[in-house]
Amino acid sequence: MRTLGTFIAALSLSVFGLSITSTAAHATTEGDICNAKWPGRNGSMHAWDGTDCSGDYLGGTTGNDLNWGDGVGGFTNANNRASSVMNAGFFGGRDMVAFYFLPGGTGSYACLAPGELYADYLGDNTFTNGANMNNNIMAHKWVTPADCAAGSWIT
Ligand SMILES: [Ca+2]
Ligand SMILES: [Ca+2]
Ligand SMILES: [Ca+2]
Q: For residue 63, is it within any domain?
């Protein structure tokens, strides 16, 4: 009986987890292109010039890029252009992508959780300094959920 109970509890948790993921995937109303471009959870993050993961592909990486405007890293000449972003990172540890208002990886930021999958429109999101995120990102860094203050989690 104990084994069966444990199995049922695990199954319930599994179903609960699936429904959470499903809810997150459908939280946005115009994520069709983002959904189509979802690479599977592979530890990477991505950004596009247009909304809904469309327009010019600005870059993607499994690492950090503290300056989207310089010539190195996953992002070059991408300052203040991103209108949609994706987090295909693995769950656990530094699984949040923090996007920054300025280069350097410090100061005002906003975080995209791995369970959110993507933010298909940054125009309704703000950095911790209150600035609109659309066409305003200049850097990103992988951080832990504890590094992201309440209210800084974007959708
Ligand atoms: Ca843009
Ligand atoms: Ca760069
Ligand atoms: Ca948004």
A: yes
pLDDT per residue as tens digits for the range 38-68? 999 999 999 999 999 999 999 999 999 999 9
For residue 8, what are its two tokens? 């049922």
Residue listed under structure tokens 């084994």: 3
Q: Is residue 7 part of a domain?
A: no
| Count of domains observed in the chain | 1
pTM of the model: 0.81
- What spacing in Å lies between the alpha carbon of 67 and ligand 2's midpoint? 4
How far away, in angstroms, is 1 Cα from ligand 3 center?
47
Tell me how far apart the alpha carbons of residues 96 and 136 are, in angstroms, rounded to a whole number: 19
Residue 92 belongs to what domain range? 30-147
